[in-house]
UniProtKB/TrEMBL annotation:
Keyword Oxidoreductase: yes
InterPro entries, alphabetized: FAD/NAD-bd_sf, HdrA-like
Organism: Granulicella pectinivorans
Protein name: FAD dependent oxidoreductase
Pfam families per record: FAD_oxidored
Keywords: 4Fe-4S, Iron, Iron-sulfur, Metal-binding, Oxidoreductase, Signal
One Gene Ontology MF term: oxidoreductase activity
Taxonomic superkingdom: Bacteria
Keyword Oxidoreductase: yes
Signal sequence residues: 1-34
Amino acid sequence: MRVTVCFPMKRNPFRPLCVVSGLLFASTAVSALAAAPAAPPVDLVVYGGTASGVVTAYSAAREGLHVVLLEPGGHLGGMVTGGLSATDAAYFKIIGGYARDFYREAAAHYGVHKLDAHEDWLSEPKVGEEIFNTWLKRAGVEVHFHERVKEHGGVSKKGTHVVSITTEDGRVWAAKIFADCSYEGDVMAEAGVKYTVGREGEETYGEDLAGVRVDTPKHQFLWKISPRDENGKLMPEVDPGPMGANGAGDKKVQAYNFRMILTDDPANRMPWTKPKGYDAARFALLAKYLGEWKEHMHREPNFHDVMNPVMIPHREADFNNNGAFSSDYIGKSWTYPDASYAERKRIWDDHLLYTQSFLWFLASDPRVPQPLRDEVNSWGRAKDEFPDTDGWPNQLYIREGRRMVGVYVMHQADLQTDRTKKDSIAMGSYNSDSHNIQRVATPDGGVRNEGDVQVSVKPYEIAFGTILPKKDQTDNLLVPVCLSASHVAYSSVRMEPQYMMMGQAAGVTAAMAIKGKTAVQDVDVVALQQRLRSQKAILHLEQEATGSGVE
């Protein structure tokens, strides 16, 4: 079998190093469309090298399938290797199968041979990426970087059957089964699968957490503060409103950000520098808020008040959003899900500039209290992470984009009161967690963030139907990332370990569909569950309670 594996080179990530049947050669990412050959047919094409995509491909290959993985960028792992090192594990016992294998292998890299505490689930991005690369090489998966689906007409169908994907370089990738494991869901959308964007209203699925959330205390301004300057003009990064009626649906999505990997080790720390395009005026509200901090909180603000650091090995930390004004770029993600490639790049670049500017502001602006500036300057980007992007993460945290309306739509009750599923393929346990969606000037002269949801849940089962499009739309596509769920349910199930576990189920489903010559929707669920359990997947509450299959 002819196997091609392409990996990005540090000096030039757009010129990958490829191996074909053991021979090395350099390949450019740009080729003449007319000269682009059609790829040989394979069993499964996985689109998107997220952690879910890697596990989907790995799972299917271990079932004996010939698998091709197409990644639009130059790295594997998505957020797992793109800055989200503080794993959203929640209740550890429900994470089984290949997802648990990954975290166990990452822990072993540091000499830890248990997964009993949250710190056991934390690793550096470069460690996770190396594990994923090794897994796919070992399983014989063909990996092709810089292969993005053609923006229009990129999916070819015959009736309800997806025949092939065409990428921007003109290559045609035919397969028996396809899996869209990207955060964007472009293959799903081009295949004509129904999806939604934004928040349902309370009435859609009877969810009391749905829609606009007028009264939310978390990640909120801690006292009333005016969003207007001395001339009465609205400050930047504030929407004039209106916020919307409580419980009303809209087409807005929760904030994106970059999860920064920072270090306080002087030998590995890069100093903050002023980014090109920096505009201090965009942080006028933050400057005002920090200036009033001591008066209201009776202490100076610290780094923890404006970001949330979680320590990982080797004096590094995953810094996430925290508080009223932080690394979340609130209100700037709304158009991303359905945007053109050009518009998405603009949004991505704008998020990066915002992040760079936010940190430079904290490190340098005289309006920032000196103790906070000093603390920020004791940290910096780690030299040994993301070397081809100068220490800035290579993955934007797309917390939520398109959501498929599939065979089964998961909603709030599935997290709280209807937690068992006969066709369960994985389990979840992370709290309902939506980041803020808008920052709005209020009629009383103040400003509020809106959209935050933080409600605890008990372990719950995830239905097979959540990764399946409806059969009358397509019969050979699996969608384990842009899965079928309401905004409320997605806010819990969107965590990376769940994506990985659903990816494992998708890989096994693909193998069973091919061997049984059936649509993916017609795979025998009992047989699928038996196979997943044999791979130590955790599917049911009673299995979790006994710890069966965890180790």
